[in-house]
Design a protein that fits this description.
The structure holds 2 protein chains of 2 kinds. By secondary structure, chain A is of the alpha/beta class. Chain A is about 60% helix and about 5% strand. Chain A has a domain of about 200 residues: P-loop containing nucleotide triphosphate hydrolases (Rossmann fold, 3-Layer(aba) Sandwich). In chain A, helix 5 runs antiparallel to helix 7, helix 19 runs parallel beside helix 23 and helix 26 runs antiparallel to helix 28. Chain A is elongated, with a radius of gyration of 27 Å. Chain B is an alpha+beta fold. In chain B, strand 2 and strand 3 form a beta hairpin. Chain B has a 5-stranded antiparallel sheet. The chains are: A alpha/beta, B alpha+beta. The interface between A and B is large, with 45 and 35 residues. Chain B: Keywords: Iron. Chain B: Pfam families: FeoA (PF04023). Chain B: It comes from Qipengyuania polymorpha. Chain B: InterPro entries: Fe-transptr_FeoA-like, FeoA, FeoA_core_dom, Transcriptional_repressor_C.
Chain lengths: ~625, ~80
């Protein structure tokens, strides 16, 4: 055998292809309960029961080969063998939602017309049972002329049977494709109806839970109140629940720092560890609890099916600025990180709509901003409550998130009337059935997020912080001179500071923004390292960055710094992904320029207003 | 009459769709989701007060959200 065989998973959006992919390959591809989670081709390794290794492809969900959006085009090209550098898949695994057969059989027939060896995975049979459907896989298999295997991908049910069926189908992969008679869409739809009826043995009159739940969650009055209430609770929780864990981590870093100081002789090596690694990188790592709490909420919203409802509720607001609820999911993903958010825009069919969404995605408050916001808020905003149980710190955090959203809406409004001018786009989206999130999937999702965060701390944040530490440490200051003034970093700070002084930034802040171009969290580690290096004695160095900011920054200055980070595009990876997704440098440059301009104006306005109010 | 003016909760049969009034990709998507002559739909939920946009439809065993402007292009009769 020369070439490794390929097997491709195809089917409608949200039929569970990625969940099957994970179950078959042991991969941990992102799964969630809404249409359009997978927007590109992903490959994994599957071992057939015969022991033969094959390549398994996970493809974006598709309603038809007549593609309406970029992600659907990928699926069409791979399945039809016109995808660059990719042979026609040897076996197709057609994934159908058992509870939505009539709809999914329409695209299924289009796939079967190709005449390739095909196996059907009748997925989510458990949800079909919940809806009161009893299905007959044998009848369906007879009607379609291919094997049908009932599966529940997330519970790993039917996986071995499916794998065996794939191996059996693979033995026919060398045969000539016997294309089937081409049916028109109305014909396919009619035959889908007949096949679905024949495959459903019984249907109880039990009502699906969706309608009842949606009556509340999509209620025109109650729905938006519940959504905003939920978002509000999330930001309160980020502060309130994380505090004990964050304190413990911070204490831990302090203990290690003291131990290192005690055990090592004074010198460069000790300074590197205490000032660079522990004070710098450690100051970012302590925000792990906040990140985990934020993602716990996001993952539950995604897995339950509520995310699509939130898009429904937000559509009206989005329409007002020339976007659609379809942009809402990429934007909501951007609260985690703008990179998957920008990738997710591939499910948006209208190119101008998509470009606008890419350009405003960095305005959504990503999790990298959380350490920056949290450290400044903890330093300058008192830990008091306003009204019953509403913490002021959480409220300020909520306001910063709102500021990002409002900023994005205003920018979208301007863009849609100028550079991305075009007809108002529509909103067409499936609202998936509700599912109870599985603890194991949540745990895996959280672990992945925590790992990404720690890996960033160990790589990009570490490198940028250590580079700054080197610049801060050399050349050494004379007796009585400040280390910052004497160092190379002092020169950098003096160069950039005149631009930022008018908006209230001090020299340390201006300096911290330079390495933070790489990633926003670096602003925190850079400030921590700068203060640690510049501290005259070790006691001050051990104090921590929060205490230094509280002591040295005025309130207007701190607020201006927060306002800066609402807008500033301080993330190299985001710029790189925007370049890739827009095929050129033009739009990333537009994005960076307008965001820095907005950051400067926002910081300035905040500073000047705060000063004139006498804060 | 068109779907956007149809009563919520009652089942309607689609008698025609004015495809020309829809953007090409949106027409494709609606068609792929099963919106076409003869299909039966019911409005389940209407959006936020004021414009009551978007609307959630029941189509077969599936719920889909569309805008009122799409619904205005869909002619229906009581089923």
């Amino acid at each position: 055998m020369s070439r490794k065989h390929t097997i491709a998973l195809v089917g409608n959006p949200n039929s569970g292809k990625s969940a099957l992919f994970n179950a078959l390959t042991g991969a941990r591809q992102k799964i969630a309960n809404y249409a359009g989670v997978t927007v590109e081709r992903k490959a994994g390794r599957l071992t057939l029961p015969t022991g033969e290794p094959v390549e398994l492809l996970d493809l974006p969900g598709s309603y038809s080969f007549d593609a309406a959006s970029p992600d659907e085009a990928v699926t069409r090209d791979v399945v039809k063998g016109t995808f660059e550098g990719e042979a026609v898949p040897d076996v197709l695994v057609l994934v159908l939602d058992a509870a939505n057969l009539e709809q999914h059989l329409v695209f299924a027939q289009e796939v079967l017309e190709l005449g390739r060896p095909t196996v059907v995975a009748l997925n989510m049979v458990d949800l079909a049972e919940r809806d009161g459907l009893t299905l007959d896989p044998a009848a369906l298999s007879e009607a379609l002329g291919v094997p049908v295997i009932p599966t529940v991908a997330v519970r790993r049910r039917g996986i071995n049977e499916l794998n065996a069926a794939i191996a059996e189908a693979e033995t026919h992969s060398d045969e000539e494709a016997h294309k089937r008679w081409h049916l028109t869409l109305p014909e396919r739809r009619l035959s889908a109806k007949h096949m679905a009826r024949a495959a459903i043995l019984s249907k109880s009159t039990r009502h699906t839970i969706e309608n009842g739940v949606d009556k509340v969650l999509l209620n025109p009055w109650l729905g938006p109140v519940i959504l905003f209430g939920l978002l509000f609770v999330i930001f309160q929780a980020v502060f309130a629940w994380a505090t004990p864990f964050a304190d413990a981590l911070e204490g831990g870093v302090g203990v290690i720092s003291e131990a290192v100081t005690g055990a090592m002789a004074p010198g460069l090596a000790r300074d590197f560890l205490t000032e660079g690694v522990l004070a710098g990188v450690g100051s970012v790592v302590v925000f792990l609890p906040q990140i985990i709490i934020l993602f716990a909420f996001i993952l539950v919203m995604e897995a339950s099916g509520y995310m699509a409802r939130a898009a429904f509720l937000m559509d009206r607001l989005m329409a007002g600025v020339g976007l659609s609820g379809k942009s809402f999911i990429p934007l909501l993903s951007s609260f985690a990180c703008a990179i998957p958010g920008i990738m997710a825009t591939r499910s948006i069919s209208d190119p101008k709509d998509r470009l606008t969404t890419i350009l405003i995605a960095p305005l959504m408050t990503c999790s990298a901003r959380l350490p920056v916001y949290a450290v400044i808020i903890a330093a300058v905003i008192p830990e008091t409550t306003v009204g019953a149980g509403v913490g002021l710190q959480g409220l300020v955090l909520f306001a910063l998130y709102v500021a990002g959203i409002v900023g994005a809406m205003v920018v979208a409004l301007v863009l849609r009337r100028t550079v991305t001018k075009g007809a108002a786009s529509g909103f067409i989206m499936e609202l998936p059935r509700y599912q109870l999130p599985r603890l194991k999937d949540l745990a895996i999702g959280l672990w992945q997020r925590a790992w990404v965060f720690l890996r960033r701390a160990g790589t990009i944040i570490f490198v940028a912080t250590i580079a700054l530490w080197v610049l801060l440490t050399f050349p050494k200051a004379e007796e009585g001179e400040s280390q910052l003034d004497a160092s190379f970093a002092g020169v950098v700070a003096d160069t950039i500071h005149p631009v930022l002084e008018p908006v209230g930034f001090n020299r340390e802040m201006s300096l911290a923004l330079v390495p933070a171009i790489a990633a926003r969290e670096v602003a925190v580690s850079a400030l921590a390292t700068t203060y640690a290096v510049d501290a005259e004695d070790e006691d001050v160095a051990a104090e921590g960055v929060t205490a230094k900011i509280a002591a040295l920054w005025s309130l207007p200055t701190a607020l201006a710094f927060l306002a800066w980070f609402v807008f500033a595009p301080q993330c190299l990876s985001t710029i790189a992904v925007a370049r890739r997704e827009t095929n050129g440098w033009k739009w990333p440059i537009v994005m960076v320029v307008y965001l820095f301009a907005l950051a400067w104006i926002a910081a300035g306005a905040t500073y000047w207003i705060a000063v004139s109010l006498g804060l | 009459m068109t779907l956007d003016g149809f009563d919520s909760g009652r089942t309607a049969r689609i008698t025609g769709v004015d495809w020309a009034s829809l953007a090409e990709d949106e027409g494709k998507r609606l068609k792929a989701l099963g919106v076409d002559e003869g299909a039966e739909v019911a409005i389940l939920h209407r959006g936020v007060f004021g414009t009551r946009d978007p609307i959630a439809l029941r189509m077969g065993n599936m719920t889909i959200a569309i805008r009122r402007m799409h619904a205005a292009a869909i002619s229906v009769e009581a089923a």
